[in-house]
Write a structure and sequence with these properties.
The protein has 24 helices and six strands. By secondary structure, it is mainly α. It has two domains: 307 residues, Na+/H+ antiporter like fold (Up-down Bundle); 165 residues, Rossmann fold (3-Layer(aba) Sandwich), CATH 3.40.50. Strands 3-2-1-4-5-6 form a six-stranded parallel beta sheet, sandwiched between helices. α22 links the parallel β5 and β6. The protein is globular. The two termini are 37 Å apart.
Length: 569
C-alpha cells in the first residue's frame, strides 16, 4: 500500500511540473497530462504504479465525466439537436470508414486490418472534447450542443461494434448477441424509467435538506449504475451517461454537477496519464507515412464532412466549422477496438503502435485547433463559403429597412423581443440557428437567418435607418466587428451588446457601445428595482411572481432552460 501511495504521489508531482510548463507556454493541460503519462511510463521513468490502481482511477474519471455530461443532457436538449446530430454522426462515420478503408488497402494492409483501421479512425473522443468544450465555456452554445449530440451517437455506434467484436470472439452468433442485448436493455429500461419518473421526484425535499447526503447519493448513483450496466454486458460509459440523463430530470442536477466537478477533474487526469503511458513507439518507423496520411484524414477530412453535412441542413459555415473541429481526433474506443483485434488474432500488434501514434498526433492537433478556433476561423471563412446552403433558409430579405434589430433570440433576447412586440416597433430578429428561424417564421415574427460574425452577412443587413440594435451574443470579437460596422454605416444608431466579463465590457465601451449588458449582473440590478418598487408590500411581490411564472412557462414551451453557471459560483 505504501509503495502504491508513493508511486501515485511521484506521478502527481511529475504531472504538476509538466502542467506548470504547459501553463507557461499557454498550452492546454490535456497535452501536459498525456506527456506526463509518457514520462512516467515504461519508456522513461517507469514509476507508474503496477496493478489495476491507475486503471481503476481512469475508469472512475470516465464514469464521472460522462455522468456529468448526462446531467446536462435532458431529453429536451437531445430533441433539440437530435436530427442534425444523428445525420452528422452517421454521415461522418460512413465517410471516414470508406476513405480510411481505401487508404489502408493502398498502403498494403489486408482487408481485415483495413476494416479495423478504418473503423478506428471514424470515432472521436467524447472525453477529450467534453473537457475542451467545458474549458471554453461552450457546452451551452449551439455548436457545443450539436457536437455533444453527434459524439454520443458515435459512442453508441462504437459500443455496439465493440460488443459485437468481443461477443464474436467468444463464439456467439450475431443473432444471439442482438437477442441478449435487447432483452437486457429492455429489462433495465423497465426498471429505471418508472424509478426516474415516480420515485426520484419524491426525494427532492429530502436531498435539499442535506447537501452531504446529496453528494453521497450522486456518487453512489453514478458509479452504481455504471457498474450495473457493465455487469449487464454493456459498458460503464453507457451506464454513467444514462445515470446522468435520469438525474437531469430532477431540480438538483446542477447542484450535483457542481459538487462532482473536483472529483471528475482529479480522476480524469488518470485517464490521460494512462493513455500517455501506453503509447507504443516500437514499430512506428516503418509506418510513419501511413500515420501521417491517416492523421491528415482525421484532422482535415472529418471536419470537412461535418461542415458539408451541417451546411446541407442550413447551418452557417461558422457553426459547421466549430462543430467539425470536435471530430478531428480518434477516440479511446479506437484504441480499445485495435487492442481487442490483436487479442482475438485478427490483426498484428504493429497496428497498435500505428494507432497510438495517430492518437497522439490527432489529439494534440485537434486540441490546439479547438482552443484557437476563434483565431483560425477568420482565415478560412471565405474558403468555407462553398459549404453554406443557399436558398430557403438563407433568405435574402435583408434589403428591407427595420428600425429595431435583435441579434440572437436566446434567453435574454426572448425578453427583449417581447418588449419590441409591446412597443409595436418595426423590428426583426437575426439568428444563426435554422431551427429557431423556422419557429419564428411559423409564429409570424420577422426574422433573418445568418451569422453576424461574418462581415459579408453584416454588410447585407440594412442598418442605415436603424434606431436601436441589440446583440445578445456574448462573443467579444463578434461584438467588436458589429460595433465597427454599425458606426461606419449609421453613427446615430443606439447599440446595446452583451458581455460576460468586466474587462470585456470596458473594452466594448471603448469601441462605441451605448450600453453593455453584463448577463451575470442583470439579475441583481433587476432585483434591486423590485425591492425599491415594492417597499415592503407583499402584494407587489405576488404581482411580480405571477408575471415571472407566466414568462417561465412560456420559455419552457420554447425549450429554454437556465444555463449551468458552475464556473461563476
Amino acid at each position: 500500500m505504501q509503495d502504491i501511495f508513493l508511486g501515485i504521489s511521484l506521478v502527481i508531482f511529475v504531472v504538476l511540473i509538466i502542467s506548470f510548463a504547459m501553463r507557461l507556454l499557454k498550452q492546454p493541460l490535456i497535452i501536459g497530462y498525456i506527456i506526463s503519462g509518457i514520462v512516467v511510463g515504461p519508456l522513461l521513468l517507469n514509476i507508474l504504479p503496477e496493478g489495476e490502481t491507475m486503471t481503476t482511477f481512469a475508469e472512475m474519471g470516465i464514469a464521472f465525466l460522462l455522468f456529468i455530461v448526462g446531467l446536462h443532457l435532458s431529453p429536451k436538449v437531445v430533441k433539440e439537436v437530435g436530427a442534425i446530430s444523428l445525420v452528422t454522426a452517421i454521415g461522418q462515420v460512413l465517410f471516414t470508414v470508406s476513405i480510411g478503408f481505401v487508404l489502408a488497402l493502398a498502403f498494403g494492409f489486408t482487408k481485415t486490418t483495413s476494416i479495423y483501421i478504418a473503423i478506428a479512425l471514424s470515432f472521436s473522443s467524447t472525453i477529450i472534447i467534453m473537457k475542451l468544450l467545458s474549458d471554453k465555456d461552450a457546452l451551452e452554445k449551439l455548436y457545443g450542443k450539436i457536437s455533444i449530440g453527434f459524439l454520443l451517437v458515435q459512442d453508441l455506434i462504437a459500443i455496439a461494434i465493440l460488443l459485437v467484436v468481443s461477443s464474436l470472439a467468444g463464439g456467439d452468433s450475431i443473432s444471439t448477441i442482438l437477442t441478449t442485448t435487447l432483452l437486457k436493455g429492455a429489462g433495465l429500461f423497465i426498471i429505471l424509467v418508472p424509478f426516474a419518473l415516480y420515485v426520484l421526484p419524491k426525494f427532492g425535499t429530502f436531498f435539499a435538506k442535506s447537501q452531504e447526503f446529496l453528494f453521497v447519493f450522486a456518487i453512489a448513483w453514478g458509479l452504481g449504475l455504471a457498474a450495473l450496466f457493465k455487469y449487464a454486458g454493456f459498458s460503464l460509459e453507457v451506464g454513467a451517461l444514462i445515470a446522468g440523463v435520469i438525474l437531469s430530470l430532477t431540480p438538483y442536477s446542477y447542484e450535483i454537477s457542481s459538487k462532482l466537478r473536483p472529483l471528475r477533474d482529479f480522476f480524469i487526469i488518470s485517464f490521460f496519464i494512462l493513455l500517455g503511458s501506453q503509447m507504443a513507439f516500437g514499430a512506428v518507423s516503418s509506418m510513419i507515412w501511413p500515420a501521417i496520411v491517416f492523421s491528415c484524414l482525421v484532422l482535415i477530412g472529418n471536419p470537412l464532412i461535418v461542415i458539408f453535412l451541417m451546411g446541407r441542413f442550413g447551418y452557417s459555415r461558422h457553426i459547421g466549422f466549430m462543430s467539425g473541429l470536435t471530430v478531428a481526433q480518434i477516440s479511446e474506443f479506437s484504441l480499445i477496438l485495435i487492442a481487442l483485434g490483436v487479442k482475438v488474432g485478427d490483426i498484428s500488434s504493429e497496428i497498435v503502435s500505428l494507432l497510438t501514434v495517430i492518437a497522439l498526433f490527432t489529439i494534440a492537433g485537434s486540441t490546439y485547433m479547438i482552443m484557437f478556433s476563434d483565431k483560425i476561423y477568420p482565415y478560412l471563412a471565405n474558403a468555407l463559403k462553398i459549404f453554406e446552403k443557399k436558398g430557403i433558409k438563407q433568405r435574402k430579405n435583408n434589403s428591407k429597412e427595420y428600425k429595431y434589430f435583435l441579434l440572437g433570440e436566446n434567453r435574454i433576447g426572448f425578453s427583449i423581443m417581447k418588449t419590441f412586440k409591446k412597443m409595436h416597433n418595426e423590428y426583426v430578429v437575426v439568428d444563426y440557428n435554422p431551427e429557431i428561424i423556422k419557429r419564428l417564421s411559423g409564429d409570424g415574427i420577422p426574422c433573418i437567418y445568418g451569422d453576424i460574425s461574418n462581415i459579408d452577412f453584416l454588410e447585407d443587413l440594412n442598418f442605415k435607418k436603424a434606431k436601436l440594435i441589440v446583440s445578445t451574443i456574448p462573443d467579444m470579437e463578434t461584438n467588436i466587428l458589429l460595433l465597427r460596422h454599425i458606426r461606419r454605416v449609421n453613427k446615430n444608431a443606439i447599440v446595446l451588446v452583451t458581455a460576460h466579463e468586466i474587462n470585456e465590457t470596458l473594452e466594448l465601451y471603448n469601441h462605441g457601445a451605448d450600453y453593455v449588458m453584463l448577463s451575470h449582473f442583470l439579475g441583481g440590478d433587476y432585483m434591486s428595482k423590485i425591492i425599491q418598487q415594492a417597499k415592503g408590500n407583499r402584494a407587489k411581490y405576488k404581482e411580480h411572481r405571477i408575471n415571472q411564472k407566466k414568462d417561465l412557462n412560456e420559455r419552457l414551451k420554447r425549450g429554454q432552460k437556465h444555463p449551468n453557471n458552475e464556473k461563476n459560483r
